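Box 3.1. Reading complex inputs
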Amino acid sequence: MSRIGVAFDKARADGRAVLVGCMPAGFPTVEGSIAAMTAMVAAGVDVIEVEIPYSDPVMDGPVIQKASDIALTGGVRTADTLRIVEAVAATGAPVVTMTYWNPIEQYGVDAFARDLAAAGGTGLITPDLIPDEADEWLAASDAHGLDRTFLVSPSSTDARLRMTVEHCRGFVYATAIMGVTGARSQTSDAAPVLVSRVREVTDLPVGVGLGVGTGAQAGTVAGYADGVIVGSALVRCLLDAPDPAAGLAALRTLSAELADGVRDPRR
Amino acid sequence: MSANAPAPAGQVPDAAGHFGRFGGRFVPEALVAALDELDAAYRKAMGDESFRAEFDALLRGYAGTPSLLYPAKRFSAKIGARVLLKREDLNHTGAHKVRNVLGQALLTKRMGKRRVIAETGAGQHGVATATAAALFDLDCVVYMGEVDTRRQALNVARMRMLGATVVPVTTGSRTLKDAMNEAMRDWVANVDDTHYLIGTAAGPHPFPEMVRDFVRGIGEEARQQCLDLTGALPDAVAACVGGGSNALGIFHAFVGDPGVRLYGFEAGGEGMESGRHAASITGGSSGVLHGARTYVLQNADGQTIESHSISAGLDYPGVGPEHAWLHDSGRATYTPVTDREAMAAFELLCRTEGIIPAIESAHALAGALKIAPGLAAELGREPVVVVNLSGRGDKDVHTAGEYFGILDKEQ
């Protein structure tokens, strides 16, 4: 079983959900992002999701777009992402990578899988790669023992949901709302329905993302999902801070609040 | 043959939208259901006599097709080829794009959706979409890079007159590719009641195939018109290529004619060596952008590089996947044309024929100029070249006026 699977099993045994925290690689700098992710782990984030910044992130809302822009303007390379994965994996927390497909295609799919596995990464979340187009990634992830997280959506048909989940390994990513990333005042009613549809076809853990920004929301999602995925709200801690130290402090505070939230599932 | 009969069997793309190694669907799962719905509606419509009759009636009675195939004698004499201009510039809204929007607007109605969104660069597709939205009583939101809203202020006003909402996009490079990203984000959030009316033969399956089919009447008309006019097929067909819908529209009917050479002219901007161009096939490499695998201007890490062209409509760092395939298969030849070459041809057409072309189309004219001597030498006679005059130059008067230094100071 993958390290992520172990984390989900442990959380399930403790009667809580896993907290997955997302941060773009190289935001605000390579070293700054390692510091941020390390702080998140120390404050109770179970799994780190490192997003490879991309010039055309169609699934991301304004907050992650802005952070990705800052990272790319700062000159972050795909190889830097691997260095960040390695540094954060050294904390002991499982590190999964979220990426749009083109950076991987240009790096070389098999080469990236090899180097990600060597860096201690657990696998990829692929927001714009569906299993229908993923032959090369299916082969490379098998060859290098990596997890594959494809997304399912409230609009997925039963047949597509089953097909997509069959190609997942590690965990399934359920997009709670129809829309892009970004914290919202309310998470959606569609999410619990989607999670139960996934559970009908798999025993894999289900993470829910898109829209979670507070401990209370994390608790609500923890009531029906195995994992709570938070991105924009964490990124905003750094974006809105007057200086890096204040940013890290805000990040620790929110991480701890979210960690409390996933330990208090509202069923 | 009707301008909108179904595609012959056995042709590319395959059922999943692959043109060889290009095309396909690289999209969030959230969009797959909508793409499947669109694909089903499009295939049903293309097999439905009443849809085809309705589309044909609109093309003829509203858009003004078939467009003329005009022998440009004075221009021809200057370049050493018999040039036949496919006058898409005379269509309602001033470009070939009206064909695509009418087809997609009809589909939108059939799918029961009542809102359309679109991206636009120069504003031509935005204007065409706003026009169709007015005609079909659909809500319309057009995403346009903030930089382009300033370059093309008149088109912004035209869209608003037609009742559309224009949203200036302030992310990324603030141009066409970012407008497309923003439209995709809108679509992901509003897919239930919204159709994304993509303006070129790019994007995820079925858009490249569907858009091509809606515009392929251009080539079907031109092929018959050329036969009627000259008694033979042309030696070559030339078109500009940005996303590539006008080029596919005119190429498609000739793909099965081995004697007809197909030339696509990309925007070479300030020259290939300058790095400031929009020639995705000539100067790019295979990658994934906006939902399909195709040629992309990108760096070694797969980050999209900003494109440059004097023509806002060609200023895009990708290209439709069918062009990528036609290039790889060798069936069509793609060559860059610089801003300077395009503007020289622009001026030549103005002065010899009294036709002000879109700067996009001027790239095709410049391309015809480039290939004429070689073709004449190869054939041992004056070659016949059909050039797709895909749009008119009204929208470019300011840009061209500045380029030629003929605007009075206070303007």
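In summary: The first strand of chain B starts at residue 18 and ends at 19.
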